[in-house]
Q: What sequence folds into this?
């Protein structure tokens, strides 16, 4: 494993040399060269086969370069991150804002998220544990690359339990390997909305109350209806008076 981290570290340093002579948008060039290293690590480790990083993630107060579930990675031109955080205040504030925006949007606790600024020379880790904690920048080395990737591995699993994430991760069509699962979810949904027994009804009502306490009322939240209906094959008449909470309950139960 140490050999793998050493190889990745060398490739990062090579990427920095190329980026240094890139005349325009060097931070984009750095991401172009570095992103495949993270992606290959995720794929080889089989951390989450359904996982897809989200590049250029639009948030309330800006656009994060890449979001790996609970880890926000912000690329910068080599040399932007200084060894002393006194000179990194603007960058730190930018990443803190992304953490707050993503926590609010995905309904994570801010303490469960991590922001990392990266310029090829340094990693700058930013988190909130009661108060904001900004570590001093850590030079890129085998040890710091290992730390980043092991942290990435940990924070890439377990997406936020919100409708759009589940619809995205389990959106399947008739030709999908998950076709059986989609049929089970749909069947459970119809059983729940058309002919549910009293015991299941009580369980569903209890779950609904607990879910609302943690995540808020789902009825007031937007979701991608077109993707949902298309992915699960809901007919026009089945889309009328669609019960999102019941569908979400079926999705959670079947895929849990």
A:
């Amino acid at each position: 494993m140490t050999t793998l981290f050493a190889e990745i570290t060398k490739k990062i340093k090579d990427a920095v040399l190329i980026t240094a002579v890139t005349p325009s948008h060097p931070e984009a060039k750095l991401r172009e060269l570095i992103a495949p290293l993270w992606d290959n690590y995720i794929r080889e480790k089989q951390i989450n086969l359904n996982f897809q990083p989200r590049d250029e993630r639009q948030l309330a107060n800006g656009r994060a370069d890449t979001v790996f579930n609970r880890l926000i990675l912000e690329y910068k031109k080599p040399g932007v991150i200084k060894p002393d955080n006194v000179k990194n205040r603007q960058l730190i504030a930018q990443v803190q804002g992304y953490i707050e925006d993503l926590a609010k949007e995905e309904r994570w606790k801010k303490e469960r998220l991590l922001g990392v600024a990266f310029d090829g020379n340094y990693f700058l880790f930013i988190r909130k544990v009661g108060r904001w904690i900004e570590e001093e920048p850590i030079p890129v080395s085998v040890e710091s690359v290992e730390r980043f990737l092991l942290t990435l591995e940990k924070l890439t699993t377990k997406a936020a339990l919100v409708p759009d994430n589940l619809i995205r991760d389990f959106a399947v069509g008739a030709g999908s390997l998950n076709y059986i699962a989609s049929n089970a979810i749909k069947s459970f949904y119809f059983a729940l909305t058309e002919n549910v027994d009293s015991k299941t009804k009580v369980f569903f009502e209890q779950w609904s109350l607990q879910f609302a306490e943690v995540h808020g009322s789902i009825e007031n939240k937007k979701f991608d209806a077109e993707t949902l209906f298309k992915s699960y094959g809901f007919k026009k008449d089945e889309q009328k008076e669609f019960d999102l909470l019941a569908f979400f309950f079926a999705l959670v139960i079947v895929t849990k």
The chain has two domains: 2-156, 163-255. Residues 189 and 247 are 5 Å apart (CA to CA). Residues 26-45 form the longest helix (20 residues). The mean pLDDT is 82.
